[in-house]
TrEMBL record:
It catalyses: a phosphate monoester + H2O = an alcohol + phosphate. Residues 3-168 form the Calcineurin-like phosphoesterase domain. Residues 183-241 form the Purple acid phosphatase C-terminal domain. The keyword Glycoprotein applies. This is acid phosphatase. SUPFAM superfamilies: Metallo-dependent phosphatases (SSF56300). It is an enzyme of class 3 (hydrolase). The keyword Metal-binding does not apply. One of its GO terms (molecular function) is acid phosphatase activity. CDD domains: MPP_PAPs (cd00839). Keywords: Glycoprotein, Signal. The lineage of its organism: Eukaryota, Viridiplantae, Streptophyta, Embryophyta, Tracheophyta. Its cofactor is Zn(2+). Its EC number is 3.1.3.2.
Length: 302
C-alpha cells in the first residue's frame, strides 16, 4: 500500500512566508518521494506570499507546472487532469470563484466534457474546506460554497479533498448543509504537519453531516477498486501503517442510477451521481492507488 501512483497535495505547499529558499528546503525534503512519484498541487493561502509591486504566488507559479493549458484553463490556479479512472478538478480558492468569473466558466465547460465511461470517478480538490466542524477556519469560504456547490452537485462530484484545517475530518454526503446521498463525500486532510487544531469544535456534539473528526497528524490513501468502489483510509502518522491501527476506513460506493436530477455528461454512466458509503468490503482488486496528503509545513500557522 505504501507505493502510491500519485500524490495529491491540496495547498500550503510550504510555509515559506516570502522566503522562497524555505520553499526550496521543503522541496528537497520531499525529493525522495517526488523524484519517483508524480505530485499534483493546488495553491493554498501560504502560496499567496505578497511581495513588492503587488506580486503574489511567485513561488507557486515558478516552481510548479500544472496542465492548465491542456485542460482548457488559462490559469495555473485551476485546472483538471485524468489518471487511473478519475477526473480530477483542481480549484482555486484564492482567485475569483464567482459564478460570473473565468474560473466558473472554465469549470462548467470542463465538467460538461467529462466522459464518465473513461473516468467514472469525479474528484474535486481545493485548499479551504466548505464543510468543517472545527472552530478553526469555520465557514471561512462560505461564499465560495454558495457560488460553486450547485455546479459540483449537478455534475455528480463523488469526492472532495481539502486541507487548511490542521486536523482530519470526513463529512457525510451533503448538499447545502443537508444530508444528501447524491452529494459528494468531503474529506479534510489538513493534518500533514505544523501545530494541530486543538480539538476545539464549533459544537460539543458532532453535527450530523460530520462523520469522523480527529486532530492528529496523518495522511490518507485513496484506492480506486473499480467504477463502483473506492477504498479510503486515513492513517495517523504515529500508527505507521499498522493495519489494525487505522484511524478511519470507508468504502465509497458510486451508485449513479439512484440519482436522476443531474446533468447528463458523456459516456454510458451518464450522471455519475449517487453513491453511498459502505463498511462492508467488496472483493478487492486494486487497480489504482493514490496517496493524498497535505504538505510538510515548516513554520507556524498564519
Ligand atoms: Fe491554509
Amino acid at each position: 500500500m505504501n507505493d502510491p501512483s500519485l500524490i495529491l497535495m491540496v495547498g500550503d505547499l510550504t510555509y515559506a512566508n516570502q522566503y522562497l529558499t524555505t520553499g526550496g528546503k521543503g522541496a528537497s525534503f520531499m525529493e525522495p518521494l517526488t523524484s519517483r512519484i508524480p505530485m499534483m498541487v493546488i495553491e493554498g493561502n501560504h502560496e499567496i506570499e505578497p511581495q513588492v509591486a503587488g506580486i503574489t504566488f511567485k513561488s507557486y507559479l515558478t516552481r510548479f507546472a500544472v496542465p492548465s493549458e491542456e485542460s482548457g484553463s488559462n490559469s495555473n490556479f485551476y485546472y483538471s487532469f485524468e489518471a487511473g479512472g478519475i477526473h480530477f478538478i483542481m480549484l482555486g480558492a484564492y482567485v475569483d470563484y464567482n459564478s460570473t468569473g473565468a474560473q466558473y466558466t472554465w469549470l462548467q465547460r470542463d465538467l460538461n466534457q467529462v466522459n464518465r465511461s473513461n473516468t467514472p470517478w469525479l474528484v474535486a480538490a481545493w485548499h479551504p474546506p466548505w464543510y468543517n466542524s472545527y472552530n478553526s477556519h469555520y465557514q471561512e469560504f462560505e461564499c465560495m460554497r454558495q457560488e460553486m456547490e450547485a455546479l459540483l452537485y449537478q455534475y455528480g462530484v463523488d469526492i472532495v479533498f481539502n486541507g487548511h484545517v490542521h486536523a482530519y475530518e470526513r463529512i457525510n454526503r451533503v448538499y447545502n448543509y443537508t444530508l444528501d446521498s447524491c452529494g459528494p463525500v468531503y474529506i479534510t486532510v489538513g493534518d500533514g504537519g505544523n501545530s494541530l487544531a486543538k480539538g476545539k469544535f464549533c459544537w460539543d456534539s458532532q453535527p450530523e453531516w460530520s462523520a469522523f473528526r480527529e486532530s492528529s497528524f496523518g495522511h490518507g490513501i485513496l484506492e480506486v477498486v473499480n467504477s463502483t468502489y473506492a477504498l479510503w483510509k486515513w492513517h495517523r502518522n504515529q500508527d505507521n501503517y499498522k493495519d489494525d491501527k487505522l484511524g478511519d476506513r470507508i468504502y465509497i460506493v458510486r451508485q449513479p442510477e439512484l440519482c436522476t436530477n443531474s446533468s447528463t455528461s458523456k459516456g454510458n454512466d451518464a450522471t455519475g451521481k449517487g453513491s453511498s458509503i459502505a463498511n462492508g468490503a467488496p472483493a478487492l482488486l486494486a487497480k489504482w492507488k493514490w496517496f493524498i496528503s497535505l504538505p510538510f509545513i515548516l513554520t507556524t500557522v498564519m
